[in-house]
Write a structure and sequence with these properties.
Layout lengths: L1 E5 L9 H15 L3 E7 L18 E4 L2 E6 L4 H12 L3 H9 L1 H8 L7 H7 L4 E5 L5 H11 L4 E4 L13 H8 L2 E4 L2 H8 L6 E3 L14 H7 L7 E5 L8 H14 L4 E5 L7 H8 L3 H4 L2 E4 L7 H6 L3 E4 L8 H8 L4 E4 L2 H4 L8 E4 L4 H12 L2 H18 L2 H18 L3
Parallel strand pairs: 1-2, 1-5, 2-4, 5-6, 6-7, 7-8, 9-10, 9-12, 10-11, 12-13, 13-14
Antiparallel strand pairs: 3-4
């Protein structure tokens, strides 16, 4: 098959969606398919919003995947769109003509309007657009109004977020030949909005990347010894549940003041609530927290291995690959009691769920697991077995490849 994947960013830019697409694209190439990724020339998430050029190579091949990077400001066509908005009455007339939702996707960054003529002149078997929060998915939709091609949507809906309810998505979903989702909850969300084929593919992980881990070394480095450790790995953002987790530790420390909290991951520009929560702690409480920012990817397994319990009470997840990472290290997990996460964590079997807005409930779940070593071991083993059985990248690629091949048979060129 000749496959074209469209994404706002791609490797070496890093993030959950970027890893997802990289593993999927390289997995399909390894099976003999021709895969091209069209993306914005942006180096990281911080530069995605302003559409700042990343000065990356415009065309290259990465592990067999052809990568084409367009200017994130839309080039000549983008300049014309922006120029119209600056004309007196231009923005207002555009809103009246297109509506607010569509205008956000037409004028927002990255503005890959160059994608439209590219898709019109390119012959491929499958076009898949990933990560619909950003404008490129809408530009794919516009191209399909001009040229018929087999279209797969991979929206990555974070269903609790307001952006997922843009009215234009109903039309975009209806025009897809199939929509790939991460959970059955997301599948229901899609089918409520459009009568289209939906496939639950989930996300994956590479077990080999966690083989060489050494939690003891991490514990020694941060002087944790044999103390109980509650861990978080991810963007240190209030939406990821970090502020509520810090508040929950007050409940945990009343039960056992020796428990340590380990926060690992980049500090978000949306972290005011997190910083304010930390400032309300006493000096003694602050000394019970280990906080690190960026860390080497090779150290990730060792960081998880140092935890007794992994906690991600996030309302941001369309799936939550961090749960898989914790399970590969045989750790029990605690997640938010929201629709998507309830499809990932089997409560009482491989983890627990808590109200993401209630620090006491999060603290209760932490105490329940820290107080019972056998329960932690049993849940960690169950999570590991589930991950290996269903959520390796090979298993995810199997499901996507099968879908693509079926669509090619239904829509032969």
């Amino acid at each position: 098959m000749r496959i074209l994947h469209v994404s706002p960013m791609y490797y070496p830019a890093l993030g959950g969606a970027e890893l997802h697409l990289k593993e999927l694209s390289e997995g399909l190439v390894s099976r003999g398919h021709e895969v091209t990724v069209v993306t914005a020339n942006v180096s990281d998430h911080a530069n995605l919003w302003p559409g700042k050029h990343g000065n990356l190579v415009e065309r290259e091949v990465i592990n067999g995947v052809k990568v084409i990077r367009f200017s994130p400001n839309g080039g000549v066509l983008g300049s014309a769109v922006q120029g119209w908005q600056r004309i007196r009455g231009g923005y207002r007339s555009s809103i009246l003509l297109f509506g607010k939702d569509r205008m956000e996707l037409i004028t927002g960054n990255p503005m890959l309007v160059q994608l439209i003529p590219y898709l019109i002149r390119t012959r491929v078997d499958i076009v898949a657009s990933m990560n619909w929060y950003w404008p490129p998915a809408y530009q794919v939709h516009l191209a399909r109004k001009v040229k018929r091609f087999t279209l797969v949507g991979i929206p990555l809906f974070h269903t609790a977020r307001p952006w997922c309810n843009r009215a234009i998505y109903n039309r975009m979903l209806a025009k897809c030949d199939a929509v790939v989702v991460n959970t059955s909850y997301e599948a229901d969300f899609v089918q409520e909005r459009a009568a289209t084929r939906v496939e639950v593919a989930g996300v994956g992980i590479d077990p080999k990347s966690f083989d060489r881990r050494n939690g003891g070394e991490v514990r020694a480095r941060y002087r944790l010894g044999s103390l109980p450790v509650v861990g978080f790995v991810g963007r240190q953002d209030a939406k990821k549940g970090v502020a509520k987790l810090v508040e929950a530790m007050k409940t945990v420390w009343k039960w056992n003041h020796e428990v340590r909290l380990f926060l690992a991951g980049s500090r978000s520009h949306h972290q005011d609530e997190v910083e304010a929560t930390l400032k309300r702690l006493t000096e003694v409480e602050l000394q019970r927290i280990v906080r690190i920012d960026e860390f080497a990817e090779k150290d990730k397994g060792s960081i998880y291995d140092a935890f007794d319990v992994f906690v991600l009470p996030s309302t941001e997840e369309s799936f939550g690959i961090a749960y898989l990472e914790a399970w590969l290290c045989n750790k029990p997990v605690i997640g938010a009691r929201i629709g998507s996460t309830q499809c990932v964590i089997d409560e009482g079997i491989d983890g627990l769920l808590a109200d993401p807005n209630d620090p006491e409930d999060i603290g209760r779940a932490v105490i329940e697991l820290l107080a019972d070593k056998k329960k932690r071991e049993r849940m960690g083993e169950s999570g590991y077995a589930k991950t290996i059985a269903h959520f390796t990248w090979d298993k995810v690629t199997d499901r996507i490849e099968k879908l693509y091949l079926e669509l090619c048979q239904l829509n032969p060129k």
